[in-house]
Amino acid sequence: MKTHTIVLLVQDRPGVLSRVAGLVRRRGYNIQSLAVGHSEQPGVSRMTIVVESEDVEQVVKQLYRLIEVIKVSDVTDDPTVEREMVVLKLNASSSSRHEIVSMCGVFDAKIVDVGASTMIVEMTGTPAKVENFIEVVRPYGIRELMRTGRIAMVRGARGQFATEYVEHAGGNGVPVPASK
Amino acid sequence: MSETRTGAQIMCEALIREGVEVMFGIPGGAIMPFYYAMWEYRDRLRHVLCRHEQGAGHAAEGYARSTGRLGVCIGTSGPGVTNLVTPIADAMMDSTPLLAICGQVGSHVLGKDAFQETDITGITMPITKHNYLVKDVNDLAYVFKEAIHIATTGRPGPVLIDITKDAMQKSTVPNWDQKLNLPGYKPTYVPNRRQVREAVKLLLSAQKPLIIAGNGVIMSGAVEELRHFAETLRIPVITTLHGIGSFPESHPLSLGMPGMHGWVHCNRAIQECDVLFNIGGRFDDRVTGKASTFAPNAKVIHVDIDPSEIGKNVKVTVPIVGDARLTLQALLEELPPREELAEFHSYASDWLEHIRDLQEKHQGKQQYINRANTAHWALPPHDVYEKLNRTLAARGNYRVVTDVGQHQMWAAQLIDWNAGPRTHITSGGAGTMGFAVPASLGVAIAHPNDTIWAIVGDGGFQMTNQEMATIVQEKIKNIKIAVINNGYLGMVRQWQELFENKRYSGTPLSGPDFARLAEAYGWKGLTVEHSDQVQAAIDEAHATDGPVLIDFRVEREVNVFPMVPQNKSIAEMIITEADA
Ligand SMILES: Cc1ncc(C[n+]2csc(CCOP(=O)(O)OP(=O)(O)O)c2C)c(N)n1
Ligand SMILES: [Mg+2]
Question: What is the CATH number of domain A81-151?
Answer without folding.
Answer: 3.30.70.1150
